[in-house]
């Protein structure tokens, strides 16, 4: 009885660790900017999986350094402002970069 419970707990812990390494733990982030095409953001996870997002330059309104207050600290981070297709002066989305570091 106790060995079955212990085996199940170990199995569930291992599955949770594998899921964490595959979907959550980011090892490396990179940014490739090609002026005429767009911006490519790549995240490499601890399991070796890579996730790549491409943002066309026509969608980019601006690249800014934003600031936020977190736990009595001011944190600066790089963001891409995406242009609103309906309102050329507006911003449709703020995409933060390098969220892990």
UniProtKB/TrEMBL annotation:
GO terms for molecular function: transferase activity. Pfam families: PIG-H. The keyword ATP-binding does not apply. InterPro entries: PIG-H (IPR044215), PIGH-H_dom (IPR019328). GO terms for biological process: GPI anchor biosynthetic process. Keywords: Membrane, Transferase, Transmembrane, Transmembrane helix. Residues 30-99 form the Phosphatidylinositol N-acetylglucosaminyltransferase subunit H conserved domain. The chain crosses the membrane at residues 6-24. Pathway: Glycolipid biosynthesis; glycosylphosphatidylinositol-anchor biosynthesis. It comes from the Eukaryota. Belongs to the PIGH family. This is PIGH acetylglucosaminyltransferase. The lineage of its organism: Eukaryota, Metazoa, Chordata, Craniata, Vertebrata. The gene is Pigh.
